[in-house]
Write a structure and sequence with these properties.
Layout lengths: L2 H13 L6 H16 L5 E7 L8 E9 L4 H10 L3 H7 L5 E3 H4 L4 H10 L5 E8 L4 E9 L7 H6 L1
Antiparallel strand pairs: 1-2, 1-5, 3-4, 4-5
């Protein structure tokens, strides 16, 4: 098995490691995913909630796994200043996409993130949410505009 395939398995195993405590789960997931997520510009993740019978998104925990010294500050500023409606739309359950693909009809959405994390041109964006509305999103800034192939989307 190649390095990427092995790293993807490690990442998937970390996602389903229910023995980890809540505070350890996201940092461990991101750490195990770094070999396939990191493109030299940082990796961050956050847990969120989508309460039943509500369109609201509640950000619960943000963790930065890697990146330049100021990545955490820049990422948090971008996230905290994102319009709640845009954030809700971006957190489509179970998606694997890039910011440029997701915001092709609303390029200002990606431009907002890049205005804060100005050394990237795009972002890899992965989301998952359970039936109760508890979700996780992973963001990895990319050095260039990227389109995922159908195989890459399925792999994620």
């Amino acid at each position: 098995m190649d390095r990427i395939g092995s790293s993807m398995i490690d990442f998937a195993e970390a996602a389903y490691d229910l023995e980890r405590g809540d505070r350890e789960w996201l940092p461990t997931l991101l750490k195990r995913g770094l070999p396939v997520l990191e493109h030299g510009l940082g990796v961050a993740g956050y847990e969120y909630g989508r309460p039943p019978h509500s369109e609201a998104v509640e950000l619960r925990d943000v963790h930065v796994a890697s990146g330049p010294k100021d990545f955490a500050e820049r990422h948090l500023r971008a996230l905290s200043t994102t319009d709640p409606e845009v954030l809700r739309r971006q957190l489509h359950p179970g998606s694997a996409t890039t910011g440029s693909e997701h915001s092709k009809d609303h390029p200002e959405e990606l431009a907002h993130y890049i205005s804060h994390v100005d050394y990237c041109k795009d972002v890899l964006f992965l989301t998952a949410v359970d039936a109760r509305g508890a979700g996780v999103a992973i963001v990895a800034p990319l050095p260039e505009i990227t389109t995922l192939s159908p195989q890459e989307t399925q792999r994620w």
